[in-house]
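#struct-pred

JT: dropping the chains for the assembly here, can someone run the whole complex?
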Amino acid sequence: MLLAYVLKRLFWSIPFMFAVSLVAFALIQAPPGDFVTSLAATLAQSGDVVEQARLDALRERYGLDQPFLVQYWRWITGVLHGDFGQSFEWNQPVSDLIWERMGLSVVLAIATLLFTWAIAFPVGIYSAVKKYSIGDYIISAIGFIGLSIPNFLLGLVLMYIAVVHFGSDTSGLFSEQYQQAPWSWDKFIDLLKHLWIPVIILGTSSTASLIRIMRANLLDELHKPYVTTARAKGLSEWHLLVKYPVRLALNPFVSTIGWAFPQLVSGSVIISYVLSLPTAGPLLLQALLAQDMYLAGAFILLLCCLSVFGMIVSDILLAIIDPRIRYR
Amino acid sequence: MKCKDGARIGVAILAGSLLASTALAQKATGEAPALAALVKEGKLPPVAERVGSEPEIIKPLQSIGKYGGQIRFGLRGSSDYNNILRMVSSQGLVRWDLGYTTVIPNVARAIDVTPDAKVFTFTLRKGMKWSDGKPFTADDVMFNMNDIVLAAALAPVSPRYSAGGKPVVVEKVNDETVKFTFTEPYGDFLAELASPLGQNPVLYAKHYCAQFLPKYNPKIDELVKANNQTDWKGLFQSKCGDLEISARWGNPERPTLDPWVIKEPYVGGATRVVLDRNPYFWQIDTAGNQLPYINELVAPIAQDVESLILDAIGGKIDFQLRHLDAPANRPVLAQNREKGRYEFWTANAPGGSNMVIDFNLTHKNPELRELFNIKDFRVALSVGMDRKEIIETALLGQGKPWHQGPWEGHPNFHKRISTQNLDFDPAKANALLDKIGLKERGPDGMRMWKGKPLKFKIDVIPTLQPEQVDMLQIIKRQWAKIGIDMDVNSLERTFFYERTSNANDHDAAVWGGQGSWVPGDIPQQIVPVHHDSRWGIPWVNWYKSGGKQGEEPPASVKERMKLYDDARATADQEKRRVLIAKIADIAADEFEVMGVATSAPTFGIRKKNLRNAPDAMTNSWYWPTPGPSLLQQYYYAN
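RK: done, full complex below.
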């Protein structure tokens, strides 16, 4: 039963991916102009001059003068063979550029997810069980603040305080001496020393919202008759809480995995930009700004794949922990 | 308004010989300790051999320096390659001097120009080497010109290397001499070569880059495949770069003539770029020490200007102009001077104004076109603008009313084009507008044109010079008082470019008007020959295509185009100046564009103990600030 469910989900994802790739490519092509126009604009912005003839030659070389479908076909056949094309801006193969940065993005996203869960799970339970206690009020207040402060602002303020008042180095993921060094224990420790700032910044709002969700869900469950029954039968309070209502309230946590995957790239764009983190976010943003078509296309395709994949994973997990979903 | 640089500018290239300050007796004797150690180990030839027998001798600005240290500067994101270019500077055959007044020899030791400005002979330096130690000779120039530039290998032949529509002919006289011959006079040629875009003749090392050309490497296809590229052009550019692309700084193996060479490259995943000293650099100081003094240039890559500012405050930036110089950043940078151990230096505009409004005189809508082409309409809008108020509010009091063009004291200064119709006179504005057929007003008090409410937009890029939007907002309010309904249309730069310079869909657009019409500096606001001449884009296309595309301009514009061609051909600077003045005369009669205020100086920061860096320099792309101030002779005092 479960297997059939999984297979069905996997099968439907294939045509969906194709549709998504077409939309992704169309989206990149949608703004007026192309890489060459934006190159000219960038150069003009810094007072530089480019000659029209050179631009035309570039356009022809990159095939930007071809119709949309021809360009899409070239791209998608390449992608199916594992060739994501060349980045115009870097004269480098797109695949090299993307994988270089994805590793750190994954580390950052997983660290943020763990941080979020580690805080939101116990705190959410506490604030539901001890509803309207002083602790609940304090947590709720912090939660609302966390929800309402924009990430980037928190980032800038933290950085300013760190630099001006503590003279510490906050931007980037590594200190200067470790930037080019091969991986070692010391470099890992150095990474951890830098990682906590973006993790806190990125995790604050999602932690706050998960706490609220956990609290609300648990409150619904806590007053259901089965809880009263279980309590009447003499089940210990802790055992009761963890085994039944919390398990049901867990569903939103599992659902977060679905959108956690695309967040690997897109969630941290602004924070990575502000903090100058060498993750995929800033590269994606620049690729979009420069209309570096194949690089941006590869990123967007990757994002879509990750979303689809994340959704499948979370659906399957949900089906496992909640039999109701499986048998419907 | 400060104009102290004005008087020095404009004496440029005269026909005849230019000789570098090579005292023949001078020999290189000093070198960086790290290099001396390598020489001792036998891993590097002695310094005198490395710099060759005719190195350029640089007189340090203040004092003979000491070896060591690094200059850290911030790069912003991934498309900041020209920031590296400006710091390393472009090592062309010739360069501009410190004052941006004279073109002087650089890679070439001497230059000989025939009086008709058709034949340019460059003498190279004996024993000069690429950064990998291989000799630099006339063959390299021949490779660059004949196999790349004139063969149109990577891009069509640039007009920079043509005169009268015919490309230059380059000949090798001997190993140290090359001759460039044009069929028509081309007086601006040396100034063009001195620009960062004129480095082509000495950009690529033949012994390295030839392997990426099909002509020299029959097995090029294998190399293309091995490097994951799609064609040999892609391969060539990824290995050898080009003037203005990231890949120029992406390959540590590429030999260059620069003072520093790439150690940690500028590639997609990079978080910083490091350039190490070139052991074969061909300049020495007056005491015989090989330059550069500074060991390394280190450029961390930040994405955001705010984090660059934080780096500066944290003392992690040693020298920076680009990205930091917006007036809004000045207070926070000034406040943290002690903490960051830096001081300010001044970056002066080369002249001109900070914003020029170009009405589209070639508008696609015939009614608006007719209106914009009425001179009195433009005069009315100019005198209907209270520039004093704009300067006091949007520009924080910096600058004085000005249209465009060089400032007083500059040889190219032209009073009428810079200062006519500047005084605020709403009565005159109203009278002029009433007279030309805009008397009728709508219910909102705004004027009607041909029975319809008159409304137009001015396009602007808000990120380029942020104060332009503020200025336009005030102008909008001021013009509303004389019944003119204008909207400020902020556009992302690519949209702006597409809409104005390509599609010609704009009503009007603004652009910075910095410049002083010296050779190499295109006077796009007095003659439409450039994509920034947004007052007549179809005319620009007509000019550039030799009459095949675009739209034939009116006689007055055609006359100016002819004069501009003549000026570019003239070697005699006085005659050139007169021709430019004639263009300005006609432009002043026509009054096609209007400006607001003189361009205010901006600022850079530098470490307090950095020596030999000038306190003020010109801020321009043609004089790629700070490059021509020769960072290789900067050094740290203790």
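JT: nice. The longest strand of chain A covers residues 86-87. Chain A has a mean pLDDT of 81.
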